[in-house]
TrEMBL record:
InterPro entries: Disease_R_plants (IPR044974), P-loop_NTPase (IPR027417). GO terms for biological process: defense response. This is Putative disease resistance protein. It comes from the Eukaryota.
Length: 87
């Protein structure tokens, strides 16, 4: 049994207790090696995260604090699987 399988099982078990939830997998190398600078990579990741959580296609954000602003009063479960960079 692998780490992703365990992460997915925990997500499925815990997710009913949360208002909003998102499981994002295969993030390794997706945002750092695509020619974008660090700031734009983070904006892209956060846009994708908010789009998935809020079920809105192609949601665009313009600053790195947007996720906190949109989700600050919600119970949110976010699992980022296969991440290779803590930044």
């Amino acid at each position: 049994i692998g780490k992703t399988t365990i992460a997915r099982a925990l997500f499925n078990q815990l997710s009913p207790d949360f208002q909003l939830k998102c499981f994002m997998g295969n993030l390794k190398g997706s945002y750092g090696s695509n020619g974008m600078d660090d700031h734009n990579s983070k904006l892209c990741l956060q846009s994708q995260l908010l789009s998935e959580i809020l079920k809105q296609k192609d949601l665009k954000i313009h600053h790195l604090g947007a996720v906190k602003e949109w989700l600050q009063d919600q119970r949110v479960l976010i699992v980022l699987d296969d991440v290779d960079d803590l930044e």
